[in-house]
Amino acid sequence: MPKAQETVLEIDLNKLKQNVKYLKSKLEGGTKFLAVVKAFAYGSDAKVIARYLAGLKVDYFAVAYAEEGVALRQAGITTPILVLHTLAVNFESIVTYHLEPNLYNFKILEAFVDVVGAKGIKDYPIHLKFNTGLNRLGFAEADVAEVTARLKGLSAVKVTSLFSHLAASEDANERDFTLAQIDAFKRIAARVSSAIGYSPILHMSNTSGILNYPEAHFNMVRSGIGMYGFGNSEKERVHLKPIASFKTVISQIHTLNAGQTVGYNRAYTSQGIEKTATLPVGHADGIGRIYGNGKGYVTIGGAKAPIIGNVCMDMIMVNVTGIACNEGDEVVIFDGTTTSAETLAASANTISYELITSISQRVKRVILNDD
Ligand SMILES: *Cc1c(COP(=O)(O)O)cnc(C)c1O
Q1: Nearest partner of 315 among 264, 342, 285, 280, judged by Cα
Q2: How confident is the model at residue 201 (pLDDT cuts 50, 70, 90)?
Q3: What is the pLDDT of residue 205?
Q4: N vs C: which end of the chain shows fewer Cβ within 10 Å?
């Protein structure tokens, strides 16, 4: 692989394929696989990832917001796309691009039915979300009778799926809570299906649900983080390979005397003769200020170099005292091997989801193993 000469996010599609294969190996035959590609496919590249996954014949895609689905349609994706967080302002683009809305409360259900009804549409695919304990989006179990009453006799929409979301599927200490969520969803699904007279697709599991709760697989699972190579436990981590490597290069090396300072607000003071490297990556690229002042680090020739001083918009400075390195050398911010996004994220008390989805669109994406 050529060495990075600028800040790049390398995306290895072969690893994506292996992760999907591993996750699918946990499913019974016939269980559908929905690939979550929201937030630029977790900070990677939604179009590239979705095209590749469409080639792997995933059954569904999900995005958070309608505009993300529009971008996939414009990129030629024809697989069904579930919009997880439907907003009424997006109804027109949802219908124009044949996206499938999650309808999670009476207001949005009624409004969507009115919009498709007024267009004379029949059987528009909708997805109903029920809240079983996350308390984020979804109808309550107590709403079931009212929901089914409102659907009665409606030909404009067809309930393609019923779903819910687990609050703590990665946490073994919350097993009882999770099992209670699964039970609640089973009760809801049975009542809705019987009232509407057909059986929609049922789905509830995110990546950790796939791995920890086979009883929550139902007819389809929804995976995000696992496809991108992260689990929420050691057990998962060994089987999943991070698809992305975030790399940069040394722009300049300085030698400082004791007492000289580095960066804005003179936040770092050299303790003796020290060597620093300036790197072309900053908070506008996704290295938040929280990683500055010794918390985060990069890896140069296998050695850890802490970020010193404040993170700038377009640059960081790292301490390379005692590290053999030169201007132009490659720097690893994270990859799947020497430095993981999880440990870097943990250095700033956050999680891989946040670090990877923060990598901005300014960073060049380099696609590997696209075959
Ligand atoms: C983001 C999201 C997922 C994917 O979760 P992972 O933990 O990344 O697998 C699944 N379902 C819903 C509703 C989501 O918002």
Answers
A1: 280
A2: very high
A3: 98
A4: C
